[in-house]
């Protein structure tokens, strides 16, 4: 996955992506594990884009281009967005497999699904033999559910689909859990009291402001600050609307709990 942070990105799928999309979608290796028609019809990408535009307008669909060095290398998107749920779909040009593109894009699309659209759950049905897709979903904390038969004539009859689901709470836990475990114990205790008092975590970061730091940003001002503060914990009124207003700091490198 190294390098994608500077050379890759996801962007709303647009007309200038469609020639590359047409080529990638026509690849038999993509068709083998997706419901894309095969042979892929001429003009298929344009027809898909017209359907996407209607879906965007209706709020039922959003698909992103995965780009690397300004070239389309795959797509990742949300389909059938309804009642707080959506299906996740993705594929990557086989010439670019194994470089972390799907992992990278799925992470960003999940943030879009849960932070922007405020969905409650995202799901994907994956063929039991699709090891790469299973691995991508596992890396993002999807929970494996029931096996179900399929009726797709191109897929082997005896290979089931496996439903994978990720709720917004599971996504946050998967994303934030390791950093919260690493958080300075005194701040962890204060954080637990804040959450019990109805505050919530906005986001969690690592290695800022120093390598080894853990930074937890709360959604609301502190509600349950102990008085006096535990030994080794200091409070600073930062009052910077671009950063944060109040900050509890502990340890070296500093761990911060802020709002
Ligand atoms: C699934 C797919 C999108 C993955 O794209 P990708 O950009 O190559 O994925 P990534 O590089 O981000 O990650 C793939 C992971 O699967 C692992 N993997 C790949 N092939 C594997 C295999 N045969 N067995 C076990 N793991 C495998 C990789 O090692 C990597 O895991 P790691 O980061 O822990 O090493 C791509 O294979 C694809 O387009 N397949 C066809 C379409 C498809 O099946 N889409 C999903 C439908 S549900």
Structural notes for this entry:
The chain has 259 residues and is α+β, with helices and mostly antiparallel strands. The protein folds into two domains: 4-172, Aminopeptidase; 183-258, no CATH class. The protein has helices at 4-7, 18-25, 28-31, 44-58, 101-116, 131-139, 168-182, 185-196, and strands at residues 8-12, 62-68, 71-82, 85-92, 121-127, 143-148, 161-167, 201-206, 214-218, 233-237, 246-250, 255-258. β2 and β3 form a beta hairpin. The chain starts with a helix and ends with a strand. The mean pLDDT is 95.
Order of helices and strands: HEHHHEEEHEHEEHHEEEEE
Judging from the principal axes of the Cα atoms, what is the shape? elongated
The description of the largest β-sheet is: 7 strands, mixed
Question: What is the radius of gyration computed over CA atoms, rounded to a whole number of angstroms?
Answer: 22 Å
Give the number of DSSP strands. Answer: 12
CATH architecture of the largest domain: 3-Layer(aba) Sandwich
**Which compounds are bound in this model?**
coenzyme A
Count up the helices: 8
- The average pLDDT value, as a whole number, equals 95
Fraction of residues in β-strands: 25-35%
What strand order characterises the main sheet? 1-2-3-4-5-7-6
Distance N to C terminus: 32 Å
Give the helix level as a range of percent: 25-40%
Given as residue ranges, the uncertain stretches (5+ residues, pLDDT < 50) are none
The CATH class of the largest domain is identified as Alpha Beta
Q: What fold name goes in the CATH topology slot of the largest domain?
A: Aminopeptidase
């Amino acid at each position: 996955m190294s390098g994608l942070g500077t050379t890759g990105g996801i962007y709303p799928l647009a007309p200038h992506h469609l020639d590359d999309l047409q080529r990638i979608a026509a690849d038999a290796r993509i068709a083998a594990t997706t419901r894309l028609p095969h042979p892929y019809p001429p003009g298929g990408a344009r027809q898909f884009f017209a359907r996407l535009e209607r879906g965007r307008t209706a709020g039922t669909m959003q698909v992103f281009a995965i780009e690397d060095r300004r070239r389309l290398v795959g797509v990742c998107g949300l389909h059938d967005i309804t009642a707080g749920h959506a299906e996740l779909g993705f594929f990557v040009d086989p010439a670019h497999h194994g470089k972390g593109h799907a992992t990278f894009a799925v992470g960003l699309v999940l943030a879009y699904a849960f932070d922007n659209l405020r969905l409650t759950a995202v799901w994907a049905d994956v063929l039991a033999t699709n090891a790469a897709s299973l691995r991508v979903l596992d890396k993002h904390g999807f929970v494996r559910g029931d096996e179900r038969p399929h009726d797709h004539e191109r897929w082997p009859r005896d290979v089931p689909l496996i439903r994978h689901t990720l709720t917004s709470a599971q996504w946050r836990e998967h994303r934030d859990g390791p950093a919260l475990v690493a958080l300075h114990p005194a701040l962890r205790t204060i954080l637990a009291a804040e959450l019990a008092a109805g505050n919530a975590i906005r986001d969690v970061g690592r290695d800022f402001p120093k390598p080894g730091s853990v930074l937890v940003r709360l959604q609301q001002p502190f509600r349950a600050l102990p008085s006096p503060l535990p030994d080794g914990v200091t409070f600073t009124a930062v009052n910077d609307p671009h950063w944060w207003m109040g900050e509890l700091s502990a340890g070296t490198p500093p761990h911060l709990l802020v709002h």
